[in-house]
Input
Amino acid sequence: MISQFCAWLSATSLSQHIQDAFWVIPTVQVVHIVSIAIVMTSMAMLDLRLVGIAGRRQSLPDMAARFLPWVWIALVVLLCSGSILIIGEPGRDLLNVVFWVKMSLLATAIVLTWTFQRMLRRSKTFWDRNRTAAILLGSVSLVVWVGIVGAGRWIAYVEHG
Amino acid sequence: MMKQFFHAMEATSWGTAVRESTWLFPTIESIHVLCLVMVVGSIMVVDLRLLNLASRQRSVRELTNDVLPWTWTAFVGAAITGTLLFSSSAMKYSGIWQFETKMCMLVLAAINMGFFHLGAFQSVAHWDQAPAQPPLAAKLAGGISLAIWVTIVALGRWVGFA
Output
């Protein structure tokens, strides 16, 4: 099923155009990496702040206001650039188990980040009052994001289809 | 001279290990990517503050004190992993212009940082807090740094395709 979809997708003219222009994939990958830099740094700051290791001079709502919009915007850019990469080489990603591990981790990370934001909106002191939950959320989120970056690089090294 | 040095690097035990193992290169590369995104991302936080585009309400000194130790830690990680990756095929990488340009860009980034620290940053007390704006020299340093680091990422990715 998925391999038929990949065959169809790579035969589309859009995919053909991406495959024919040698510069598209490297360029889009650079956009992808710079966006990852924005998301990863922002999330690391927030997660380390949640755990209590870094940035304690700033309040959590201030930090969230500074970094969360960048996370969501960069995630949209990642979704777009990632889609172009998939359209250009469908089999490399969609038939690769590491790609699906990365997507599962991404779904987890989005749920965690959304939970963080939602609780903070309900009460500015929620995470300061629930320290155990804050440490748990921060550390799990950090590990998941590191996993996403690692899996992203490993896609290139695991045989697909 | 340089050729002999690169040759010796390839012959080291770690260079040989990375070259001959199937999993060491991707594993070290993943750590390299993780470190470099932290370097670039955290530098962007500082650059955007210098450009007066983000974190405007924060003291520049407080911000740099919070962020730069993480930048340097990640940079050390990127340098170590980068050296390991390089030594696996030092002769090959040293001859690729994208790699050479990337190294030159790293030197430029260091020079830009040096100018900023010895120049505009000396008077940071006068423009540390909003509503004061960073002076032109600081904005310039931030803008140049941003451009250099994006170029470094691009060249680094390009090495893999060369």
Summary: Residues 60-88 of chain B form the longest helix (29 residues). The two ends of chain B are 24 Å apart (CA to CA).
